[in-house]
Design a protein that fits this description.
The chain starts with a strand and ends with a strand. The protein is built from no helices and 16 strands. The strands form five sheets. It has a six-stranded parallel sheet with strand order 5-7-9-11-13-15, with no helix packed on it. It has a four-stranded parallel sheet with strand order 2-4-6-8, with no helix packed on it. The protein has a two-stranded parallel sheet with strand order 1-3. It is globular. By secondary structure, the protein is mainly β.
């Protein structure tokens, strides 16, 4: 039912991971620096992906997040530079600070309509990101949330957003179209 802090940290031989629905909690750093991990599926029992849970899994390509996950913790997937495919669950409400920091392989992200908050530096330096769809329940976009996303070409901020932090889109030097609700 639970995976403790640092339980599989630095398990460099681990290549794929499926967390079953029976798991309801995971500790910080649980899978940090499993640098050969390419695929992760998080089951429906988990409510929060822990802080630093998968930091440094730099070969992670495919991520499927269970339908009961409400929060993706701080720096949960930071440094996962080969991550290209994310499937978010249907209950996600918050993407915390630095969650996808320097995930340079991401080309597109569709933030579900259930999310209300995008934290500080969440997608900082995701230089491969060319397309972002921000869900219509997001009320706040944190400071530096998309800073240095140099591939981003167009952006629509929905009517639901009431605050955008400092430097949220700084150095997105390929942006040619921005619509703010």
């Amino acid at each position: 039912t639970s995976i403790g802090s640092s339980a599989f940290e630095n398990c460099t031989g681990l290549r794929s991971l499926t967390i079953p629905d029976s798991v309801t909690s995971m500790g910080s750093y649980a899978f940090r620096s499993c640098n050969r991990l390419t695929s992760v599926t998080i089951g429906n029992g988990v409510k929060e992906v822990p802080n630093y849970g998968f930091t440094g899994c730099n070969r992670l390509q495919t991520l499927k997040i269970g339908n009961n996950v409400e929060i993706i913790g701080s720096s949960a997937f930071s440094g996962c530079s080969e991550l290209t495919n994310i499937t978010f669950g249907s209950s996600l409400e918050e993407i915390s600070s630095n969650a996808f920091y320097e995930c340079t392989g991401l080309a597109s992200v569709s933030i579900p309509n259930t999310v209300t908050s995008i934290g500080n530096s969440t997608f900082y330096n995701c230089s491969g990101l060319t397309s972002v769809n921000i869900g219509n329940k997001v009320t706040s976009i944190g400071s530096s949330a998309f800073e240095n996303c140099t591939g981003l070409k167009s952006l629509t901020v929905p009517d639901s957003v009431t605050s955008i932090g400092s430097y949220a889109f700084r150095s997105c030097n390929r942006l040619t179209s921005v619509t703010i609700g």
